[in-house]
């Protein structure tokens, strides 16, 4: 099969290549999926660049997320069945066969059915963005998505991948959603996702706009804690949980006393270290929401497998929406 691979970490143009590699066979508890779309996440290029780990042993096929059709199953696998359309998550986590290839072999537990009328574009957008969003909405609370009904959620960066699904999942759970964006164009994307109020955080009265909508935010899904800390604390109160899923060049200084006075808390989210039971809960909610039609694809930019370098560079440069590599 053809696959994008790297044998050492570094800049995309220096380490990524497209080569013929042997098509893998599924082992016990594994499935093989013929990939029809491979989603690229920021963690994919950061891992390839060497920012999150070491060089791979022999080679690594990148990308955690994807969509495709089950081609073969290993011993002990009852579901999914051969021929079933599926979406994949954490495909390259502890596994050299990520989704940037003709086929991926991965644990059956990391594969979920894709609803029959859902496009491939949606399946490739799930995984890291949507499951991270679901966990951010659950972590630090009761873990019950039903507890969000009637609550108010603030999503920082509502036009981003995680932000998009945080809006849709929160609305799916019955919450009211405020989101912050940096431009009118991004505001339209957030409104299309279902946000009740969209605020440009660059405007001087951003805090007043949020406070005019609600006097208390129950949960904040945060992409830039340091940059948004003042706004977050201005609308936080007793029981507010700020779920932080992205890091920044410099660690922010946390004003402990202000958090204590507000009785608010911070939960940090890195999907690759989430406990199994919490990961299963986030995946189950994502799958349910996708099955009910509550989730929509991000704006898609397509690249062929031979353009893998350009695809990685696009994500590294902050492409809006989802970069999709089509093998």
- Number of helical segments with 4 or more residues: 11
**Which fold name is given in CATH as the topology of the largest domain?**
Quinone Oxidoreductase, Chain A, domain 1
The computed structural class is alpha/beta
For the record, the CATH architecture of the largest domain stands as Alpha-Beta Complex
Radius of gyration: 20 Å
The CATH homologous superfamily of the largest domain corresponds to: Medium-chain alcohol dehydrogenases, catalytic domain
Strand content: 15-25%
Give the mean pLDDT.
Answer: 96
The count of domains is: 2
Protein name: NADPH:quinone reductase
Keywords: NADP
InterPro entries: ADH-like_C, ADH-like_N, ER, GroES-like_sf, NAD(P)-bd_dom_sf, Zinc-ADH_QOR/CCCR
Describe the overall structure:
- With 327 residues, the protein is of the alpha/beta class.
- It has 2 domains: 2-126 and 295-326, Alpha-Beta Complex (Quinone Oxidoreductase, Chain A, domain 1); 131-272, Rossmann fold, CATH 3.40.50.720.
- It has 11 helices and 15 strands.
- The protein has helices at 12-15, 42-49, 120-125, 128-138, 161-172, 184-193, 206-213, 225-235, 256-262, 276-291, 308-316, and strands at residues 2-5, 17-20, 30-40, 65-73, 85-88, 103-107, 111-113, 152-156, 176-181, 197-200, 219-222, 241-244, 265-268, 300-304, 322-326.
- The strands form 3 sheets. Strands 3, 4, 5, 6, 7, 14 and 15 form a 7-stranded mixed β-sheet that branches. Strands 10-9-8-11-12-13 form a 6-stranded parallel β-sheet, with helices on both faces. It has a two-stranded antiparallel sheet with strand order 1-2.
- β8, α5 (161-172) and β9 form a beta-alpha-beta unit.
- The longest helix is centred in the C-terminal third of the chain and has 16 residues, at 276-291.
- It is globular.
- The N and C termini lie close together (10 Å).
- The relative contact order is 0.15.
């Amino acid at each position: 099969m053809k696959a994008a691979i790297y044998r050492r970490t570094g800049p995309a143009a220096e380490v990524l290549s497209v080569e013929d590699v042997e098509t893998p066979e599924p082992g016990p508890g594994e499935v093989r999926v013929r990939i029809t779309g491979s989603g690229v996440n920021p963690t994919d290029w950061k891992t390839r660049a060497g920012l999150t780990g070491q060089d791979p042993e022999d080679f690594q096929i990148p990308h955690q997320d994807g969509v495709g059709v089950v081609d073969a199953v290993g011993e002990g696998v009852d579901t999914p069945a051969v021929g079933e359309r599926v979406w994949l998550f954490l495909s390259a986590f502890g596994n050299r066969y990520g989704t940037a290839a003709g086929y991926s072999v991965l644990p059956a537990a990391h594969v979920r059915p894709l609803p029959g009328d859902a496009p491939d574009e949606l399946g490739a957008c799930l995984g890291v963005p949507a499951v991270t969003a679901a966990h951010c909405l659950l972590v630090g609370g009761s873990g019950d998505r039903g507890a969000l009904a009637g609550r108010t959620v603030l999503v920082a960066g509502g036009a981003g991948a995680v932000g998009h699904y945080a809006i849709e999942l929160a609305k799916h759970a019955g919450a009211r959603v405020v989101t912050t964006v940096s431009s009118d164009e991004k505001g339209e994307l957030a409104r299309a996702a279902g946000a009740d109020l969209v605020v440009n955080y660059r405007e001087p009265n951003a805090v007043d706009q949020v406070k005019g909508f609600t006097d208390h935010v129950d949960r904040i899904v945060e992409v830039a804690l340091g940059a948004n800390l003042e706004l977050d604390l201005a609308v936080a109160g007793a029981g507010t949980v700020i779920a932080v899923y992205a890091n920044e060049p410099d660690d922010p200084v946390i004003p402990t006393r202000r958090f204590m006075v507000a009785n608010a808390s911070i939960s940090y989210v890195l999907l690759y270290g989430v406990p199994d039971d919490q990961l299963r809960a986030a995946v189950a909610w994502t799958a349910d929401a996708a099955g009910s039609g509550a989730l929509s694809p991000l704006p898609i930019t397509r690249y062929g497998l031979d353009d893998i370098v350009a695809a990685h560079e696009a994500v590294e440069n902050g492409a809006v929406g989802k970069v999709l590599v089509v093998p």
